[in-house]
Amino acid sequence: MTSPGCHRVGVGYDAHRLVEGRRLILGGAVIPHPAGLSGHSDADVLTHAVMDATLGAAGLGDIGRHFPPGDPRYKDISSMILLRNVVVLVGSHGYTIGNIDATILADEPALAPHIELMRNNLAQVLGVAVEQVGVKATTSEGMGFIGRREGIAAIAVAALIRSAGRDSP
Ligand code: MG
Asked: What is the Å distance from ligand 1's center to 101 Cα?
């Protein structure tokens, strides 16, 4: 049995390939760039990492389990819609979002001008204050697939709060 108000943490990681002919969407923000991320959905790698962190914190698996790749319902879907579904799901299991913190790994484009929009987008969909959402960006200084501009990755942690009066499942 878990005491009410206890915290649960989860971690999420994702990476997608950069290709021409796709829009680059991170945290629901459209980033001007000659290449975007390939994937079945809109390939919003930041939001995918946040979803996996949130699901993991609730002990509910990963996004592949809830939104199978290849399912025509999710073709080119906005990952913000999928994130909203995750929030509703963890809420139905008695959890609310404590805070989220995430780091995007990209050698280009420069993401600093877009960070606040990503935070606001995620906070709105998560149903929390923007102060509860951290988004940061770093480069790999030319090393590896990030450094070769072959892809963008993101890592996130989520802390969930068990609603008062609910025992653990
Ligand atoms: Mg993904």
From this structure: 17
